[in-house]
Amino acid sequence: MLEVRDLSVSFGAVRALRGVSFTAEPGAVTAVLGANGAGKTTLLRTISGLVKPKDGAIRFDGTELIGHSVEGVARMGVSHVPEGRGVIEELTVEENLRLATLWCLPRRQRAASIDQVLELFPRLQAFRHRQASMLSGGERQMLVLGRALVSRPRLLLLDEPSLGLAPLITAQLMGLLREQTEGTDMTVVLVEQNARSALSVSHHAVILNLGQVVVSDDAATVAADDALRHHYLGF
Amino acid sequence: MSLFWDYTLNGVASGMIYAALALALVLSYRATKIINFAQGAAGMLTTFIAFSLLTRGWSYWPAFVAVLLIGFAIGAATEFILIRPLQGKSELNPVIVTVGLLVVFEGLAGAIYGNASRGFPPAFSQSGLRFGSTTIDFSHFDLFILCAVLALMLALLVLFRFTALGLRMRASAFSREIARLLGVRVGLLLTLGWGLAGIAGSLAGLLVAPTSAFGPYYMNLILVYAFTAAVIGGLESPVGALVGGLITGLCISYVGGYLGSGVEPAGALVLLIAALMVRPEGIFSRPPARRV
């Protein structure tokens, strides 16, 4: 379980996060929603160690994450898929996947694990040896999601996976995400601008506004609350 | 026609040396996007260390290996102690540091060994190879240069293409943040990249020394030629360093042979300007990402 307590982050005079607290349960998707500038990306970057917080605590399965290096947090089983389809363009599809297995899987299991992920994304199978820079936007998103899954993370942080994607591909990815989460002990934190899509696959929802948590409730409850949706999510 | 072939063979041998130093520049640039202007001087310093070991009775090959290891240590220490603390600050700072380091290394060598030029023993004979009654202008030592640089290139190719360590190093060079998010200890690998650059630089120093006036400043002109080679090949491509080195070596050899050795540095400068005007990203630069 991920527990974020009283987390505050400042960039100079700008307070990006102000006392953010929430929990994310294993086997469930927790959506973090809000307008541009609400602090969603900063929240994920702070959890994975890319941003140093001013105050607060981030505990995952009882272990404090703050103070560890980015790579140290990753090696605790935290997989962060950053905004903007973070493939390494100069590497091939297979190399991108293999890179994620190096620290966490024994040599013998790596190839099988990559094959399993490529079965989830048959489109990538054909491009296995192609440089990632040659992939389309949707294919890149499949690759980063596959790369996150291949390391069998305990905590998956997804930042705007639907950004710039066609609705059909977004629906496929979201469906796959829910499939991969349910019945496992993986904790998923999903940051999305596309609130409707995120709520459809999430179990819990946290809404940020100007760096503060304004709502933390079941995703179904949030989706059913017209006033809340209109006020904070714009639909 | 015979002169042309002589100049060609000379160009290949000297081009391989430029390729070795260009490779050193490429390895450090790939890792940290910094041109290490002290790379040639570090090679000079380690070659002086080899000179000291040889004069103390070491045989050539143990001294050769020891100096490559010392080159690795100097390269790694430079990144760890001097370059890493400058990350995220002005891009000019590391340039100033590497230029300063060049001056320090040359001053150190001058203070310890004196500024006079001296001879450095070659690993093999420098007399031309004989085929029957014909002697060509390509010596056993030139052949050693060719093999040593190709062996280094091959070793790096295997490291980068076929090992997990090489994959981690490439990922760290191409996208530091993503690599860290995937659990790669990027800092360690950047240090390793500079260490490998130190090996290539030390090899270049050892290969140049027997063919030039060995002294504290003998690598400066080689650094200019190697920089030209690295730019021609593409600053991030080890294969480009090899091809750029050969192109530079051949051009300089022809210019020196037909126009006089005094024109060689000007020839390199013209080549560098031409390369920057025609293909500034270099022959083997990575293709730009396709926007889709």
Write structural notes for this entry:
The complex is a heterodimer of chains A (235) and B (292). With 235 residues, chain A is an alpha/beta fold. Chain A has helices spanning 40-47, 70-74, 93-101, 107-120, 122-126, 137-150, 167-181, 195-201, 219-224, 226-233; strands at residues 2-11, 14-24, 28-33, 55-60, 63-64, 78-81, 155-159, 187-191, 204-209, 212-218. Chain A has one domain (2-85, 153-233): 3-Layer(aba) Sandwich (Rossmann fold). Helices cover 39% and strands 26% of the residues of chain A. In chain A, helix 3 (93-101) crosses helix 4 (107-120), helix 4 packs antiparallel against helix 6 (137-150) and helix 7 (167-181) packs parallel to helix 8. By secondary structure, chain B is mostly helical. Chain B has a domain at 16-126 and 135-219. In chain B, strands 1-2 form a two-stranded antiparallel sheet. In chain B, helix 1 (2-32) packs parallel to helix 5, helix 1 (2-32) runs antiparallel to helix 8 (186-208) and helix 2 (39-55) packs across helix 8 (186-208). The A-B interface holds A 48, 50, 69-71, 74-75, 79-80, 82, 86-91, 95, 98-100, 102-104, 133-137, 147, 151 and B 164, 167-168, 170-171, 174-175, 177-186, 286-287, 289-290, 292.
Looking at this protein, list some descriptive labels:
heterodimer; A: 235 residues; alpha/beta; Rossmann fold; six-stranded mixed β-sheet; four-stranded antiparallel β-sheet; 39% helix; 26% strand; globular; B: 292 residues; mainly alpha; 71% helix; 3% strand
Helix and strand arrangement:
The complex is a heterodimer of chains A (235) and B (292).
Chain A: E1 2-11, E2 14-24, E3 28-33, H1 40-47, E4 55-60, E5 63-64, H2 70-74, E6 78-81, H3 93-101, H4 107-120, H5 122-126, H6 137-150, E7 155-159, H7 167-181, E8 187-191, H8 195-201, E9 204-209, E10 212-218, H9 219-224, H10 226-233
Helix pairs in contact in A: 3-4, 3-6, 4-6, 7-8
Chain B: H1 2-32, H2 39-55, H3 60-83, H4 92-113, E1 128-131, E2 134-139, H5 140-162, H6 164-174, H7 176-181, H8 186-208, H9 220-233, H10 238-259, H11 264-278
Antiparallel strand pairs in B: 1-2
Helix pairs in contact in B: 1-5, 1-8, 1-9, 1-10, 2-3, 2-4, 2-8, 3-8, 5-6, 6-8, 9-10, 9-11, 10-11
